[in-house]
Amino acid sequence: MKISTKGRYGLTIMIELAKKHGEGPTSLKSIAQTNDLSEHYLEQLIAPLRNAGLVKSIRGAYGGYILGKEPAKITSGDIIRVLEGPISPVEGIEDEEPAKRELWMRIRDAVKDVLDNTTLEDLASHTDTGESDAYMFYI
Which domains, from first to last, does the chain contain? Predict the structure, then answer.
């Protein structure tokens, strides 16, 4: 399964809003500038997120967007499904022969499990420990 820029940038918007949760509205312009993204493209992504109730818009001079729910109650799966559609590694899974259908379903279920068990709170509070990439070489 490949997540497009819609899903990736949508997650970026939502993570930024989660980081500022409780501080008032955040403008798409500030999110675009912070992450070096197109504000126009982010405007296209925010509408489906708002329609799904994941974000709320606040009008006015100091307006912007806030999360529609607590960061712990929104999963990355919620966001990806709104922007990318159903989670499936292949099209026409039901037409596959049984062995391959079983494989595709296991892959789909594993991806769903990760997405549905990773909340915005998890993503917003993530810190890069560097341990996974850190190798020490001694001579």
Answer: 5-125 (1.10.10.10)
CB-side exposure of 50: number of CA atoms within 13 Å? Answer: 12
Residue 11 is predicted with a pLDDT of 96
* Euclidean distance between CA atoms 49 and 17, whole angstroms: 12
Residue 43: in which H helix or E strand, if any? helix 39-51
Dist. CA 68–CA 82, nearest whole Å: 14
The interaxial angle of helices 5-19 and 28-35, nearest 10 deg, is 110
Whole-angstrom CA distances from 41 to 4, 8, 45 are: 13, 12, 7
Termini Cα distance of the chain:
42
Percentage of the residues of the chain whose pLDDT score is greater than 90: 68
The model's pTM is 0.85
